[in-house]
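Explain this one:

_____
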Amino acid sequence: MIPEHVREAARRAAALPDAALLAECEETFFTAGGPGGQHRNKTESGVRLAHGPTGVVVTATERRSQARNRGAALARMRERLLVLSHRPRPRRPTAPSRGARERRLREKRHRGDRKAARRGGEE
């Protein structure tokens, strides 16, 4: 269960423009590693964004460019905030209709009759 203040902070942050959202996030850079050669392994091109009010943390390491990774991380942050801000509609329990009850019982009787017919020859 997501606390309401976190959901509200996520909704507010998701509506911000990119520059304002980036200003709310703590941005750290790190060595991404992996395929891409010496350039990728020696430069700090990985980007990690941590949004303080909601506690959401995302990373992007798939590009060799820090700027492109920042854009990818910002897009991921926006997606995660939108998911976090979604409030599911409350479910209301409903009783099965008379027709649904009758169909279920008819199917159970039919299945029982088929089983009884299989047993019938052995007794």
Observations:
- The beta strands are 25-30, 46-51, 56-60.
- The mean pLDDT is 91.
- Helices lie at 4-14, 18-24, 37-42, 66-85, 98-119.
